[in-house]
Structure formats: structure tokens, C-alpha cells
């Protein structure tokens, strides 16, 4: 793992990725933030040594380095998922690379379904805590202690100071921002009615297929983290309709400008 991380990092440095301060992971249907970045360098995932390749049609597959709100950032335009056949170590490998490049803060976005029926599609949820339902841990491999503390503390996986700043920005800009618990499942199938009921019982406010592995590794590496879910559908088990993925992507695109505002204004103050 250390050899792979070194190879990937050295390649990106040779391409002009120069000491980014902040890493950003863009979720499903959430690529418009790139338009706000003053791009300095970019690399396709399939050109970066040891990198996985995005296989989901609405994930671009590029690592972008540039300036956003006056700060140097590295942006994942497209992420990896367990449902693509990747291991949790593959899924989180880019977080390790971004940390080696120099980031101290990781901001994550995702598209999620609203389990809490007080939350509506098109709204945003700031993740306050999470439930890992992906069946394993990205830290469960031999030699992990060479990269950080094996028994990583997860009592507060999302940075309370950054989250408070995001909430204040939302209030200032009249953006409706819920706060809640995100459950991460394997997918790619959507949930059954019984599964939605279970998720509500165990305390989830939203459900998706990403984010938690990256957050676990970010905590393992000592990064400050924050994550926002764009709620793209409402998961009411008593009135469940077939899911239309095209409509989910459209809803993500519609809600994304508010997420961009939150991230841009936050980055100005970090």
C-alpha cells in the first residue's frame, strides 16, 4: 500500500498537483462545482498509477487541482463504490493520495434518499453522524497501523467547528439545511420497504452508497471532515414508487447550486 501511495503521489506532483489544502469529493450528479474551480492541473483516473477507474456512467473520472475561493483544492470528479466491484481499500485509496499531497480538510458530497420524512427531495442534509452498513471497514487490512492508528476513534467523525460554520452560512444565505445521520449501504439495488423501515428504526435520516468509507479513512489520517447529502428522493415505505435514476440525477443537479454556495463560502473561511 505504501509503495502504491508513493507512486501515485509522485505522478500527480509531476503533473503539477502542488500542496493542495482542501480535498473535495463530488457525489452522484454533483459535478457543477468544477465550473467554480480555476483549474491548474488535471489527471484522468486511468492515467494515475494504481488508481481505480470510475465505472458509473454519471461519474466523470478525473482528479482536478486548482484554486477555489482563494484556496488550493484537489477535487475528485467522480468517486468509487463497493457496488462497482472495488474493495473498501480501493474506494478510499484517493483519500490517502490527497492526504499525501497535503490536504488537511476533506469535504464530501453525495446524493441520498430521505428516510426522515420531514426532509424533502431537493433539500440538503449536513451529516452529523453515520451508520456503516457496508459489511466491513476500509481499515481492515494487514499493515494498516503503518499508515495510522488501527483503532481509529470515531466518536466525532465530522468536525463540529466546520459543521457549525456550514450551518451559519446556510442561515445567512437562506438555504434550508437539515442535520442528521447518514446510513451507508452497499447497493447498487435500492432498498425494499422493509429495509427503509429498518433504517428508520436504527436512527438513519438518509441513506446512500458512499461517503462513510472515505470518512473513516480521513479520520484514520487525522483530517478534518464534513459532508453534505443532497436529498434526491423520499423513502416512504408506505407510499413507495419505483425509483427513476434519471429523476434522481435531475434532482441532484437542481439542488446542487445550494451545496456549491455552502462549500464555496466555507472554503473562503478555512
TrEMBL record:
Coiled coil: none annotated. InterPro entries: Nucleoside_phosphorylase_d (IPR000845), Nucleoside_phosphorylase_sf (IPR035994), Pur_Nuc_Pase_Ino/Guo-sp (IPR011270), Purine_phosphorylase (IPR011268). Pathway: Purine metabolism; purine nucleoside salvage. The keyword Secreted does not apply. Residues 21-268 form the Nucleoside phosphorylase domain. The keyword Glycosyltransferase applies. Its EC number is 2.4.2.1. Pfam families: PNP_UDP_1 (PF01048). This is Purine nucleoside phosphorylase. It comes from Winogradskyella vincentii. The lineage of its organism: Bacteria, Pseudomonadati, Bacteroidota, Flavobacteriia, Flavobacteriales.
Amino acid at each position: 500500500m505504501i509503495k502504491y501511495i508513493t507512486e501515485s503521489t509522485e505522478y500527480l506532483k509531476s503533473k503539477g498537483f502542488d500542496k493542495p489544502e482542501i480535498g473535495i469529493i463530488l457525489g452522484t450528479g454533483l459535478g457543477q462545482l468544477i465550473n467554480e474551480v480555476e483549474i491548474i492541473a488535471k489527471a484522468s483516473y486511468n492515467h494515475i498509477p494504481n488508481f481505480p477507474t470510475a465505472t458509473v456512467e454519471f461519474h466523470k473520472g478525473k482528479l482536478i487541482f486548482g484554486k477555489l475561493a482563494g484556496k488550493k483544492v484537489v477535487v475528485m470528479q467522480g468517486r468509487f463504490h463497493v457496488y462497482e466491484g472495488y474493495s473498501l481499500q480501493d474506494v478510499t485509496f484517493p483519500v490517502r493520495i490527497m492526504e499525501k499531497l497535503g490536504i488537511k480538510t476533506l469535504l464530501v458530497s453525495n446524493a441520498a434518499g430521505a428516510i426522515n420524512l420531514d426532509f424533502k427531495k431537493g433539500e440538503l442534509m449536513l451529516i452529523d453522524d453515520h451508520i456503516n452498513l457496508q459489511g466491513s471497514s476500509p481499515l481492515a487490512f494487514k499493515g494498516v497501523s503503518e499508515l495510522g492508528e488501527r483503532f481509529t476513534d470515531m466518536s466525532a467523525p465530522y468536525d463540529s467547528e466546520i459543521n457549525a460554520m456550514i450551518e451559519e452560512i446556510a442561515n445567512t444565505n437562506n438555504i434550508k439545511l437539515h442535520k442528521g445521520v447518514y446510513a451507508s449501504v452497499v447497493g447498487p439495488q435500492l432498498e425494499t420497504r422493509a429495509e427503509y423501515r429498518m433504517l428508520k428504526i436504527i436512527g438513519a435520516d438518509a441513506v446512500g452508497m458512499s461517503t462513510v468509507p472515505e470518512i473513516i479513512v480521513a479520520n484514520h489520517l487525522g483530517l478534518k471532515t464534513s459532508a453534505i447529502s443532497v436529498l434526491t428522493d423520499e423513502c416512504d415505505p408506505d407510499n413507495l414508487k419505483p425509483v427513476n435514476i434519471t429523476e434522481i440525477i435531475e434532482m441532484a443537479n437542481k439542488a446542487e447550486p445550494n451545496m456549491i454556495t455552502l462549500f464555496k463560502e466555507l472554503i473562503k473561511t478555512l
